[in-house]
Design a protein that fits this description.
- The protein is α/β, with parallel strands linked by helices.
- It has a single domain, classed as 3-Layer(aba) Sandwich (Rossmann fold), CATH 3.40.50.
- Helices cover 33% and strands 19% of the residues.
- A 7-stranded parallel β-sheet has the order 1-10-9-6-2-3-5, with helices on both faces. A 3-stranded antiparallel β-sheet has the order 4-8-7.
- Strand 9, helix 7 and strand 10 form a beta-alpha-beta unit.
- Helix 1 crosses helix 2 and helix 2 runs parallel beside helix 3.
- The longest helix is centred in the first third of the chain and has 23 residues.
- It is globular, with a radius of gyration of 17 Å.
- The two termini are 14 Å apart.
Length: 246
C-alpha cells in the first residue's frame, strides 16, 4: 500500500484521476480492454469529475462494475448508486458495458449470482474505493466479513453508516435510509490488480487513523487495504490530520 497526502480535495482528485487514467490506458494497450470497479458517494464526485474529463482514456474499451447498492431502492431514487454512476460516469464517457447491481430485484439471490458471474469471469484491473466515516469499505460496515470469498454479499448497514448518508444529503431522515445493501466483499476488492482510494475531508480523519494506524481487522474494514501490494490511498491534509506517522 502507498499513501499520498496532498493539500486539499481538489489536489487529490486530480492526482488520483491522472493515476487512474494512466492505468486504464496502459491496461487497454496491453490487453485490449480494462475492467473497472467504480465507487460512489460525495467523496468520489470531484475525482470522478476529473477522471471523466480526461480525453486520453478510450472509454469504449472500459467494462465497468460498481461496488454496492441499497436493497429495495429504485434506480430512480436520488440516492441510488446506479443513478449516481449512470449520470456522473457512464453517460458522460460513453462506457458501453456497465454491470449494475439490481438491489430492487424481486430475486436478490439471482441478481447477486448474475453479477458475480460476470465480475469473476476475468480479473478486475482497477478498483476505486473510499473509506466511510465508520471505517467501512464499500458497504462492509464493522465488523466486516473478512473471510467470505463470495464476490457480492448482502450486508446490514449500521447506524453510523446510515447517518453518514443523511449527513451527505442523500436522504432527508435516518428512517428513509435502507437497512441493507448488496456490497462487494472485502476479499473480492483485494482481488483487483490495482486499487485507488480517494479519501478527502476532516470527517474521515478518525476512520483514516483507525484503518491506517490501528490493527488490521474486521472492526476497521478499510484496514484490509494495507494487505494489497498495489493500493494507493489519497488523503488531503484534513483527512490525514490525525495520523502520527505521516
Amino acid at each position: 500500500m502507498q499513501l499520498r497526502i496532498l493539500e486539499d480535495a481538489a489536489s487529490i482528485a486530480c492526482a488520483a484521476a491522472e493515476q487512474a487514467a494512466s492505468t486504464i490506458q496502459k491496461t487497454i494497450a496491453e490487453h485490449g480492454r480494462c475492467r473497472l470497479v467504480l465507487a460512489t458517494g460525495n467523496s468520489q464526485i470531484e475525482f470522478l469529475n476529473a477522471l471523466t474529463r480526461m480525453a486520453v482514456v478510450d472509454w469504449a474499451k472500459v467494462e465497468a462494475f460498481h461496488l454496492d447498492e441499497y436493497v429495495g431502492l429504485a434506480m430512480t431514487h436520488p440516492a441510488s448508486f446506479r443513478k449516481f454512476l449512470l449520470e456522473r460516469v457512464i453517460r458522460k464517457t460513453g462506457i458501453q458495458t456497465f454491470h449494475v447491481i439490481e438491489g430492487d430485484s424481486d430475486d436478490l439471490s439471482a441478481a447477486i449470482r448474475a453479477i458475480s458471474t460476470r465480475l469473476t469471469a476475468a480479473r478486475i484491473d482497477l478498483a476505486f474505493v473510499g473509506i466511510g466515516e465508520n471505517g467501512h469499505i464499500a458497504f462492509n460496515d464493522p465488523p466486516a466479513d473478512f473471510a467470505t470469498e463470495e464476490p457480492y454479499i448482502i450486508v446490514d448497514l449500521d447506524e453510523a453508516c446510515r447517518r453518514q448518508q443523511v449527513g451527505e444529503g442523500w436522504f432527508a431522515a435516518l428512517l428513509e435510509v435502507p437497512m441493507r445493501a448488496i456490497s462487494m466483499s472485502p476479499q473480492q476488492i483485494l482481488k483487483a490488480k490495482e486499487i485507488i482510494a480517494v479519501v478527502p475531508d476532516l470527517r474521515k480523519a478518525q476512520a483514516v487513523k483507525l484503518c491506517l494506524e490501528g490493527e488490521i481487522g474486521p472492526t476497521a474494514p478499510a484496514s484490509i487495504l494495507r494487505r494489497h501490494p498495489n493500493a494507493t490511498i489519497y488523503l488531503d491534509r484534513e483527512s490525514a490530520s490525525l495520523l502520527t506517522k505521516s
